[in-house]
Amino acid sequence: MNFRKEWKRLVIIALSLYLLINIGVYIHYANKGTLRSVHFDILSLVPYVLFSTFSITISVAALSLVFFLTNKTVRLVLRSKPALVAFIILFVYYIWSLFQGLLEYASGQILYVKLSYMFLPYNPFQYNPSMALLPPSFAHPFGTNSNGEDILSRVLYATPSDAEISTIVVLSAILIGGVIGILSGYFGGIVDEVLMRITDVFLAVPGLILVIAVSVLLGESFTSAIIGLMVPWWATYARLFRSQTLVVKNMQYIDAAKLLGLGRLKILTKHVVHNVIDAVLAYAALDFGNVILTYSTLTFLGIGLLNPNTPEWGSMVSHGVEELPQAWWYPVFPSLVIVIIVTSFILLGDRIQDVISGRVVY
């Protein structure tokens, strides 16, 4: 069986099995009257939520590995040892983010808070002054903070939000910047002039200043931080898409497509987008780390948090700095996690750029 050619079929089969299993579990609980009862026991839903969370996470992990290991370009990227190590770190990072994020979401839906930290070493919100500022130990590998809360548990709890915000911001920037950049580069003239002048306005203002201004204007919340990052982030992608489109639109196959009578929309979607996306994706791999670093800076400054005690990597570093030099572990370990994740994106992104640009041959 050629897995590289059959991966789409594998995806369909796996998702079908997942849906059938979850429907079966739902029917089981429905027959017991759990879901029909107005006053059902919340704890009776926990096994179903855990099963769904595990099955989604394992399915995504397995399907991702099948795709990665059967893709020739990905295998070439992973021949580099630094890129392979970075890939493993980021794979674990995203799988944990998915698993923990689903638990946090489900705990809010069924109003069972304990579910959100069930698989963490400790309750990340447990206030315990008698355990304040304990140094790293076997019981608390990252030590504890000034409230006696376990730092490792808080770092793990905060992971989904950083993964979520980086994914949303980068994908939205690719979408918005892609539409603007491709239209600008392909049509040229007044369209190019207007769209690029708008883009220049966003590029002229320092990105971090604009992010802070928008976030503060919209109020202290996770959503405002996302919007604040999205507002300036698309401009670089618009420039990148435009430059790639200017190269592609003069290629002979574009002229051939026009001679065959293909419409502009067909040419843009089938030929232009397909041939400009590779270079953009290589840059995007690096940009995930930039978003995480910028968001950590925002939370370090206390922006984008409704509750100052909300576990976020940047805010943990900010609070930990106040305890230096006695409690050095408080800011050091969250900072180290940020450095490891951002560096992993840089190493993997550099390798992807080398492969796509042809500096590494098959």
TrEMBL record:
Transmembrane segments annotated in the record for this chain: 12-29, 49-70, 82-99, 165-189, 201-218, 224-241, 280-307, 327-349
Q: Tell me where in or outside the cell this protein is found.
A: Cell membrane
Reply yes or no: does the keyword Chloroplast apply.
no
> Membrane as a keyword?
yes
A GO biological-process term: transmembrane transport
List the GO cellular component terms. Answer: plasma membrane
User: What keywords are assigned to this protein?
Assistant: Cell membrane, Membrane, Transmembrane, Transmembrane helix, Transport
**What is the membrane topology noted in the UniProt record heading this document?**
Multi-pass membrane protein
Please report the stretch or stretches of sequence annotated as the ABC transmembrane type-1 domain.
163-349
Question: Family per UniProt?
Answer: Belongs to the binding-protein-dependent transport system permease family.
Its recorded name reads ABC transporter permease subunit
Source organism? Stygiolobus azoricus
